Amino acid sequence: MQLDRRKVLGLGGLGTITALMPSCASALPEPDVSAAGFGQDARGTVRLWCRAATVAGVRQTVEAFNASQDRLTVEVTPVLDAQYVTKLATAIRGGNVPDIVDIDDINSMLFIYRDSFTDLTPVISQLDFADRLNPGQAELAVRGGRNYGVPYIADNSALYYNAELFERAGLDPVQSTADFDGLLDAARAIGGLGEGTYGWSLDANAAGILGFVVQPHLWAADAPNIVGEVGSQRGSIADNDAVRRTFEFYRTLWKEGLMPPGNFAADGARWGADFREGTIGLFPANFSLAVLNASPEMQAKTGVVLLPGPDGGRATFAGGDNLCIPRGAGNASGAWEFAKFALDLPQQTQLPAGGYIPVRSDAATPEYREQFPLATVSLDDIDAAYAPVTLAYNLLFNQPDSPWIASFRRAVFDDDLEGALADGQEDFDRILEQAQL
Amino acid sequence: MSAPGRAPVTAPTDAPVVTRSTGSGHDLTHPPRTGLLLTLPALAFVAVFVLVPLLFAVYMSFTNWPLIGSYEFIGFDNYAAIASDPVFWKSVGYTVLYTAIVTVPILVLGYVLAVVVRSNRRGSTLFRTVFFLPYVIGLTTLSFLMVLEAQPGSGAVNIVLKALGITDGTSAWLADGPLATGLICVMIVWAVSGLTMVLLMGGMQGISRDVYESAEIDGATWWQRERSITIPMLRPTIAMSLVISVIGSLLAFTQFYVLTRGGPSTDTQTVVMYVYQRGFVQLQLGAASALSIVLVVVIGLVTAVQFRLLREKD
Amino acid sequence: MTTSTTPTTTALGPATARRRTPHVGTAPGRPRAESRTKITLYVLGGVLATLVFLVPLVWSVLRSFQPNDAIVATTPSWSALTQFTTENFRALFTGDADIVRAVGNSLVVAVGTAVLTAVLATLAGYGFGRFGFRGRNTLFGLIVVTMMVPFQAIITPLYLQMNAMGLTDSRLGLVLFYSTVNLPFGVFVMRNAFESIPTEIEDAAHVDGAGTMRTLVSVLRPLLLPGMATSALYAFLAAWTEFLGALTFLTDDRLYTLPLSLVNLQAGAYGAVNFGYLVAGAVVAMVPCVVLYVALQRFYVAGLASGAVKG
Lengths: 437, 314, 311
Fold this sequence. Notes:
- The complex is a heterotrimer of chains A (437), B (314) and C (311).
- Chain A is an alpha/beta fold.
- Chain A has helices at residues 2-20, 22-25, 55-68, 84-93, 108-112, 121-125, 135-139, 163-169, 173-176, 180-191, 207-220, 241-255, 273-276, 287-292, 296-300, 332-343, 345-348, 366-371, 377-380, 393-398, 403-412, 417-435; strands spanning 44-51, 72-79, 100-104, 142-143, 146-147, 150-162, 198-200, 226-227, 234-235, 280-286, 302-305, 307-309, 312-324, 385-386.
- Chain A starts with a helix and ends with a helix.
- Chain B has 314 residues and is mainly alpha-helical.
- Helix content of chain B is 68%, strand content 0%.
- Chain B has helices spanning 32-60, 77-83, 86-117, 124-137, 139-149, 156-163, 177-205, 209-217, 222-233, 235-250, 254-259, 271-281, 285-312.
- Chains in contact: A-B, A-C, B-C.
């Protein structure tokens, strides 16, 4: 009697496991994007997942879309940024996927590499502005020459400066920001103005921010910190002169007191507060932080350039979100119809009102330039946008225990440049290897 | 059969079992089969929601399951990799250190609080209410409150320290490994000692007055009375309290997740946090499962050892 | 004649407890002088400890009524500390955070868990505490072992399993999971509760012709209510503050429980955290726990004093 019951329970357990097996192995079916009428006259509901950080802007677009026609209804589910990859992965594993995902572009390749997203090349090529899309973002969704996602909103890093402080220091912002020497001179001059002004500000205890604003210095010098093809990459830290000089640059800024002391522990919770108060000369950040949340007086004296390399060049982080359609989506056609709407000029040109930048360079119309003068620099130089295509971006840069932030802080605050570079190289290699298993 | 005021609950569990509960003489009112049936719903829940996933986890630990995409069997590779995983061992060291730091203070403070509260003087119920209050609020909520108070400059911790002149009030408690650990330890001792207090209190109240009286007549001081009467008689209670406390500390997760996310770098990463990282962030379920299984086994061993050690001295 | 039940598990209340357990460790009729030192120590120690335990909580409540700027000011001033506003709560309840819905979800889940745990634990406690059947101790041990398995070990396989069962993204799924996790403690408590009930009552009911369920429901229930209350209350507390399970099993943000909202408030892309909202949210989370505890504290304390000790 006893044993029978136990056996039943045991068998039940095995049975459950066996039942779960089929759902585990194969990839979900891919929607047919080449079918006639794909992306037109679709009906029904479209389930959209967006990052919690972008939900305000996304909801606006969704409402506009729902109002513009009555065949499709888009439902938005915001997902916490930190949980996004896991939740999407478990949803795919469980066979219960949304129709379209607004995903942080640096995470796109994680899923594309494992055949989880739909090949959208045919329908993207049908867009007449396809060649004007942000190449850095688009590249993050390309594999084997095929596009598995389309850029949607851009979040680019740039160097914002306080024009008034520059004037008082008697310097020209564009010239001063051409290379590291110029930046140091400007920072010193502005720091020397006294009254609690600092030349530079950076939240140095926030992993994501360090990846966002420090890396472009490397790309402007054409010396990225990850090299190789996706699947067989390794780090380039110890052998990378640009990394060394960038760390040294920040080390100098910190040692000479050109950054506020609070930067040491600042974790991003109050990012940009000091720049918006007008006490900082140079502030690498994004549009939302530096401009959108600033007072009109502050905005009037703000200028922006892209981030320079040690000896020149300009680059910006091709951040933002891509739109991708997971395999196994129920309403892929409706999803693409929404995507096209989201990429239309009326929607794109209004993105800066929500803190984001358009992903198409032709959004910089005269009206746009007038409305958002500080949001044009990354569009005019859209080819300078870059982001590393890798499976391990999250682990290498965005986590509190990532090697990028560890190396940075060690070099800058602990004054151990060599150790930082050596360990950084080791950790980058180890993580890339583990991620590529 | 028992003296008035002495509750059965303080009897050590290896004392003769109260025969009532075996039902041997009550077959008619307590047919064994009914008993089994009564326990089945609970057992079913445990089987479905804990044991089956656990078995599944064992299965997964022998694969390189990456959550997205296909997987394959890799035998014991995950387990072998654990031995040479520096991050794992660092988290083990940290967790053990953390447990070592907080266990004794929790017990001692709980004991002291129990002494204060057991006297049943006026106000002792009020005290008891207050001392247990933080525990009832829960570690999750307390951690969220602490996030604010640990902020440099504006947090209460810094305000107080600055007012006392100990620091200049700008310490970033959560951005530094040792500082964050210290802060978390203080918070935990503060929140969990109430639990120990209640556990011990129950035991203390069951000890008969007579025993104390004779000791006093023999001239024993308060501390001598505690040491030779209260503590030995509370052995099982203390044992239980320690077991609960140690398991809780070894499995600590919530407060670390909310306050430091295991940072800076991996300086405040406990073992369970590391398992979470491997599984949820690095999406390597196979490796995370192997780690989990090892953890379960180790906890079991530690608990067994604890029980043995704390019983033997009789 | 009967087993002397611990004072705290009867329905008689603290006053009775006091009468039955007089001053521990002292004999009556001690010289006054010593008592006074003891009393001074007691009062001093007690008051100090009370401050240590209460002040942080009261402080946090006060903070929740301050504007965010005052809370995060890097050089706090006394004037900043006296600002008073209900803005934080207002924003939480009417703004995007939608705390009302989160509180509602949490209530549903926590109450559901409490009830289900109490029921399952009572049944199992009866079985384990009163009936003798082969393998009883093993099975009881099995339930207890659950306590030592960390969530994180099983949460992903459990997700896949619950997905297959259609229980993800549902509050019911959460209730089922939380109940399971709270069973070990509940069964402990109920088993002890049953063991302290004199068998004569059941025998009498049996003689009157009542079956097991009838006995349980009509006859024993009043005696069991304290134990059930204890199991229910601790299950409520655990379910109310749990967040990792909720984070994993829930995707639809309309189902979010309160701890998830707090995690949401604490995180955010690159910051822009409003600490005022976070504190207010935490205070909202605190309130039901404190209220329940103060009103029903007898059951919190009793359960631990009698339940956990029996090894």
